[in-house]
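subagent[fold] <- orchestrator: predict structure for attached chain, return tokens only, no commentary.
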Amino acid sequence: MKEILEVLIKNLVDKQEEVSIIEKSDAKSVSYEVKVAKEDVGKVIGRQGKMAKAIRSIMKAIATKEHKKVNVEFLD
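subagent[fold] -> orchestrator:
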């Protein structure tokens, strides 16, 4: 799942080398902390958070197939 999230994020930003994704998981859930360059934060979150919501929806669909819950946080 982390690889899919990384591909999604890297295709949105200009500074791909500054993308950092930290994965924390246990038996039934996975949490991701996404950090990008300050200039790219707006591109990842989108207008009124629509892009962030879309990314979370995609990840939730993938996690459902694996019988897990997922949380994606975008950090400054």
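orchestrator: received. Logging for downstream: The first helix runs from residue 2 to 10. The helical segments are 2-10, 41-45, 50-65.
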